[in-house]
C-alpha cells in the first residue's frame, strides 16, 4: 500500500485548546445561522431551508462543522478573531480549507515592516493583493533593498511609520513622499538623533488625516496640513534658526479642522511667540494635550487658541520656579480662558502638585445644575499655593457664562502626601463662596498618605467664611485622615477643638441672623472601631445638633 499524500499538523497544547474552543463556538454559530436561514426561508417552498449551510455533501456523508460555513463568512470570522489577537495564525492550522481561506483573505496580510525577511515580506505583499497597507519602515544602512521594495507599494499604503537613525536621512523620505500616495491617511516620523537638521521640506498628498513628528525639524507644506484632524509634535526643543522650521501658529492656521492636538517639548516652535498678535481658531478641537512645556509658554499658547467650550485640556508643565500651578490660566480682555474649559488637568513636576478640575452639568427639566469638583494631590504646599487653587476655582465660576452661574454643588478633595502645618485664613473661602451665587452644598474632604497628622485649620476658616453668606444650605466635612501603610486602612484623627468650637460658634452666629444651615454631614470615622477615636466635647456636639436641621454623622459606617 503506497501513501500518496500525508498531511501532518503539529500544534502546541495551547493552540490545540484554542482550535477546540473555536470549533465548539463555530458549531454554535452554525446552529444559529441555520435557524436564521430556516426562519427566513420558511415562506419559500421552492428553496431548501438548509441551502445556505448544508449538513451533508452530495454523496450523503455528514459535513464536519468546520466545512459548513461559506468562504466569505469564514473569512469574516477569522478577521474578527485576528483583531487584536497575536495568535491569529492558529486559525490557519485547523485544516486545509481554513488555511486556504486564511491565505486568501487579503486584509490579514496588510501589516508589513522593513524588519521582515525578504521572503516573508514578499509573501505579505502577494497575499495582501490590492488591499491598503500599514507599513513600518526603518531606514538603516543594511536594509536598502527591503525599503525599496516597500517604496514600490507606496500607492496603496494607508498608514506609514518612518524611523530615522539621524535627521539627515529625512532627505530619503522627501524622495519617497514625492511619489504618488493617493490613500495615505496617517504618517508618523521618528528621529532617533537629537541633533537638529532643519533644512528640509516635508509635503505629502492632501489625503493625510493624521501626522506625528518626533524630533523632526522641517518646513511643513500646506498639502500636509490642510485636511489634518490629528496632529502630534514631540521633542522639538533644540534651538534652531526661527526661519528654518514652521512655527506652531502657522501650522495651526493651516489645519483648522483639527480634532486632536498634542504638543510635547516643542519650545522651538514657540520661539518669539506673541499670543496677543497670534490668534488661532480651532472650532472642531476636542482634545488639547500640552506636555513638558514651561508654564509661561503654555499660558501663551492657551491665550492664542480659540477653542470650543467642550474641549478637554490637559496641561503638564515643567517649570521649576513656579509656585502657582494655575499660572497657565491667562486672563484676556478682563476674563479668563477657563470659562471655556470643562476639564482641566494641571501637573507641576518639580513641586508634585496634581490638580484636576471637573465641571459636570445636568439639566433636570428646564433648569441647568452644575457640580464643580476639584481633586488635588500635593507633596508639599504653602498658603500661597493653596490660595492659587481656590482662586482658580473661583475664576472658573466668576468668568463663566451664565449657565455656570447655576453651579449648585462644590466638591474639594485634597490628598496630602507630606505636610506639617498649614494655616489658611478665611480669605480663600470667602473668595470661593462669593463666586458661586447659587451654591447650596459644599463638600470639603482632606486626607493624608503620610504617617503624621495634618494640622489644617480648614474647619475654622470655613466656619468664618460661612458667616459671610446665607446661600450655602448644606456642608459636608471630612476631617483630617491618615493612611496606615502597613494595614492600608484609614484612621481618623481627633478634630481640632478650636476648629470645632469655632464652627459651632459661627453656626450660632448664622442662626441668630436667620441663616439656618439646612443640612450638614460630618464623616469622622472610617473602617476603625469608634472606641479608638477620642470623643468630642459632648456639649459642643449637642450645640451642633441644635444648630443644624438635618445632621448626618457617619459613626463606624452608620448614620446617627
What brief labels describe this structure?
560 residues; 14 helices; disordered N terminus; 18-stranded mixed beta sheet; alpha/beta; flat
Structure overview:
The protein starts with 12 loop residues before the first helix and ends with a strand. Among the domains are: 13-28 and 50-96, no CATH class; 352-560. A hairpin with a 6-residue loop joins strand 17 and strand 18 (369-378). It has 560 residues and is of the alpha/beta class. The radius of gyration is 33 Å and the shape is flat. The chain has 14 helices and 28 strands. Residues 38-59 are annotated as: Disordered.
Count of alpha and pi helical runs: 14
* Structural class by secondary-structure content: alpha/beta
| Low-confidence regions | 1-11, 43-51, 319-353, 359-368, 399-405, 451-460, 470-497, 524-534, 555-560
**Radius of gyration based on Cα positions:** 33 Å
Shape: flat
Number of strand elements: 28
What's the helical proportion of residues? 25-40%
**Main sheet properties:** 18 strands, mixed
N/C terminus separation:
91 Å
Q: Mean pLDDT, rounded to whole units?
A: 63
Q: Beta-strand level of the residues, as a percent range?
A: 25-35%
InterPro entries: F-box-like_dom_sf, F-box_dom, LRR_dom_sf
Protein name: F-box domain-containing protein
Organism: Rickenella mellea
Pfam families: F-box-like
Please render the helix and strand layout as text.
Elements: H1 13-40, H2 71-82, H3 96-104, E1 111-113, H4 118-127, E2 133-139, H5 144-151, E3 157-164, H6 170-177, E4 186-191, E5 201-202, E6 210-214, E7 219-220, H7 222-225, E8 230-234, H8 248-253, E9 260-264, E10 280-281, E11 287-293, H9 295-304, E12 305-306, E13 312-317, E14 331-332, E15 335-336, E16 343-348, E17 353-362, E18 369-378, H10 383-398, E19 407-416, E20 421-422, H11 427-434, E21 441-448, E22 455-456, H12 458-466, E23 474-478, E24 481-484, E25 489-492, H13 497-512, E26 517-523, H14 538-547, E27 548-555, E28 558-559
Parallel strand pairs: 1-2, 2-3, 3-4, 4-6, 5-7, 6-8, 8-9, 9-11, 10-12, 11-13, 13-16, 18-19, 19-21, 20-22, 21-23, 23-26, 26-27
Antiparallel strand pairs: 14-15, 16-17, 17-18, 24-25, 27-28
Helix pairs in contact: 10-11, 11-12, 12-13, 13-14
Biased composition (Basic and acidic residues): 40-49
Organism: Rickenella mellea
InterPro entries: F-box-like_dom_sf, F-box_dom, LRR_dom_sf
Amino acid at each position: 500500500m503506497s501513501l500518496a499524500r500525508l498531511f501532518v499538523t503539529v500544534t502546541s497544547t495551547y493552540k490545540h485548546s484554542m482550535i477546540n474552543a473555536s470549533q465548539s463556538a463555530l458549531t454554535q454559530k452554525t446552529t444559529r445561522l441555520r435557524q436564521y436561514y430556516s426562519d427566513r426561508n420558511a415562506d419559500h417552498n421552492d428553496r431548501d431551508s438548509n441551502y445556505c449551510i448544508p449538513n451533508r455533501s452530495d454523496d450523503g456523508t455528514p459535513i464536519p462543522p468546520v466545512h459548513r460555513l461559506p468562504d466569505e463568512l469564514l473569512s469574516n470570522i477569522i478577521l474578527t478573531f485576528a483583531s487584536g489577537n497575536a495568535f491569529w495564525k492558529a486559525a490557519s492550522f485547523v485544516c486545509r480549507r481554513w488555511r486556504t481561506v486564511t491565505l486568501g483573505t487579503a486584509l490579514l496580510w496588510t501589516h508589513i515592516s522593513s524588519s521582515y525577511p525578504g521572503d516573508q515580506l514578499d509573501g505579505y505583499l502577494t497575499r495582501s493583493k490590492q488591499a491598503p497597507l500599514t507599513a513600518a519602515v526603518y531606514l538603516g544602512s543594511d536594509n536598502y533593498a527591503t525599503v525599496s521594495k516597500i517604496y514600490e507599494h507606496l500607492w496603496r499604503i494607508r498608514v506609514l511609520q518612518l524611523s530615522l537613525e539621524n535627521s539627515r536621512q529625512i532627505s530619503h523620505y522627501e524622495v519617497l513622499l514625492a511619489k504618488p500616495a493617493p490613500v495615505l491617511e496617517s504618517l508618523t516620523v521618528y528621529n532617533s538623533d537629537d541633533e537638529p537638521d532643519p533644512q528640509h521640506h516635508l509635503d505629502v498628498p492632501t489625503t493625510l488625516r493624521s501626522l506625528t513628528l518626533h524630533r523632526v525639524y522641517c518646513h511643513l507644506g500646506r498639502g500636509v496640513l490642510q485636511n489634518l484632524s490629528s496632529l502630534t509634535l514631540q521633542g522639538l526643543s533644540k534651538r534652531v534658526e526661527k526661519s528654518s522650521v514652521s512655527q506652531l501658529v502657522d501650522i495651526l492656521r493651516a489645519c483648522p479642522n483639527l480634532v486632536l492636538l498634542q504638543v510635547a517639548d516643542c519650545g522651538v516652535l514657540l520661539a518669539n511667540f506673541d499670543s496677543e498678535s497670534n490668534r488661532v481658531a480651532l472650532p472642531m478641537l476636542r482634545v488639547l494635550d500640552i506636555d513638558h512645556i514651561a508654564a509661561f509658554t503654555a499660558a501663551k499658547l492657551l491665550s492664542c487658541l480659540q477653542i470650543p467650550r467642550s474641549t478637554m485640556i490637559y496641561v503638564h508643565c515643567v517649570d521649576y520656579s513656579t509656585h502657582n500651578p494655575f499660572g497657565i490660566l491667562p486672563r484676556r480682555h478682563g476674563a479668563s480662558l477657563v470659562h471655556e474649559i470643562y476639564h482641566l488637568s494641571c501637573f507641576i513636576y518639580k513641586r508634585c502638585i496634581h490638580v484636576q478640575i471637573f465641571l459636570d452639568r445636568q439639566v433636570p427639566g428646564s433648569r441647568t445644575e452644575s457640580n464643580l469638583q476639584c481633586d488635588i494631590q500635593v507633596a508639599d504646599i504653602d498658603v500661597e499655593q493653596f490660595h492659587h487653587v481656590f482662586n482658580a476655582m473661583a475664576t472658573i465660576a466668576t468668568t463663566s457664562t451664565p449657565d455656570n452661574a447655576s453651579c449648585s454643588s462644590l466638591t474639594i478633595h485634597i490628598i496630602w502626601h507630606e505636610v506639617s502645618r498649614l494655616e489658611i485664613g478665611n480669605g480663600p473661602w470667602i473668595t470661593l463662596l462669593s463666586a458661586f451665587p447659587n451654591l447650596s452644598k459644599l463638600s470639603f474632604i482632606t486626607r493624608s498618605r503620610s504617617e503624621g497628622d495634618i494640622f489644617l485649620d480648614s474647619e475654622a476658616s470655613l466656619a468664618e467664611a460661612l458667616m459671610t453668606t446665607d446661600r450655602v444650605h448644606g456642608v459636608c466635612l471630612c476631617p483630617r485622615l491618615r493612611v496606615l501603610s502597613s494595614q492600608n486602612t484609614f484612621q481618623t484623627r481627633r478634630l481640632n477643638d478650636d476648629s470645632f468650637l469655632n464652627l459651632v460658634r459661627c453656626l450660632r452666629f448664622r442662626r441668630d441672623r436667620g441663616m439656618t444651615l439646612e443640612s450638614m454631614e460630618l464623616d469622622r470615622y472610617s473602617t476603625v472601631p469608634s472606641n479608638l477615636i477620642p470623643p468630642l466635647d459632648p456639649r459642643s456636639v449637642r450645640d451642633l445638633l441644635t444648630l443644624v436641621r438635618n445632621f448626618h454623622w457617619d459613626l463606624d459606617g452608620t448614620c446617627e
